[in-house]
């Protein structure tokens, strides 16, 4: 509106100047003035508005796989060579700091690094064996699967126990075969010799050979009996015994059997029994076998004329301590951890010469484990060895005297 009015005034002014006969300079000045007014009133274009560039959209968060926490085995998620997630089992195995680390640093094993860094397509789904991860004798099986975004799911399965069991089985079969083959070879050899008319006709030679055959046959019999006993104990290891056993009475009974057995060392066996002890929860036959094995070992390896002491006493907490002590050559410290292994012998030739099968302490260990107890072996070279079994008390902890008192009170009441 203002622009139209200004134009109208300018035109009117110019017409009036021309009609009144104004000079040309006046008309020009008037035109310039009007043009200036028009320019002042003419709308200027609006300055360009600066438009901020659009902000980049934030990268979507990495997907979470919280389901891995439900696994008891170690499970990790690997993305671009780094560990994005790890469940509690994986953090316990590899360290609490592994999230965000390079997978080659977290799992320090060349086979794992080759498998997880390689871009092989399609993904090799075969398991990878990792030997020595987390410990020299540990064996783990690594399974790998693909996830979204090129990520990998790594599942570690501990195969250490299974491998150790398989190795023990192989060693056991090999050792048992060797232990049976040795006396069997001797028996066959002497039988073949006796079959010779010249050797068989000599009475002293025949008697000596027959005595050796008898000893080797008895050795085989003891070995088979020990193997069967060990098998029975292992078959029952998940079923804890619940019967109440008077340990003092059992020690007295075993002592009497050993004393009457005719062994030259039987007179060296003495007992030290705490009469106030509670009954133990146990299998009487197996505890008797445990005592016979321990006392038999002490009689073999203790010095002649020195005491073999069977002692019962109170152990830590509510446990009952049963120990057998000898005064012999003792055992070097490096042998102690292996004494309960099947067929392990500190001195193999001496053990075989004294009729040992190499299974005595293995049977003792399995009996104690079935009784939910603990086995301890202490030995000082040159002084002797003490083998201790800590056994839990029976649910009703009655001592022998206490049991007698209860029985007497019942009789009086009746």
UniProtKB/TrEMBL annotation:
Name of one Pfam family that matches: HisKA
GO molecular function list: ATP binding
Key words, A-Z: ATP-binding, Kinase, Nucleotide-binding, Phosphoprotein, Transferase, Two-component regulatory system
EC number assigned by the record: 2.7.13.3
InterPro entries, sorted: BphY/WalK/GraS-like, HATPase_C_sf, HATPase_dom, His_kinase_dom, HisK_dim/P_dom, HisK_dim/P_sf, PAS, Sig_transdc_His_kin-like_C
All residue ranges annotated as the Histidine kinase domain in the record: 175-395
Top EC category: transferase
Reaction it catalyzes: ATP + protein L-histidine = ADP + protein N-phospho-L-histidine
Name of the protein: histidine kinase
Species, as recorded: Sphingomonas tabacisoli
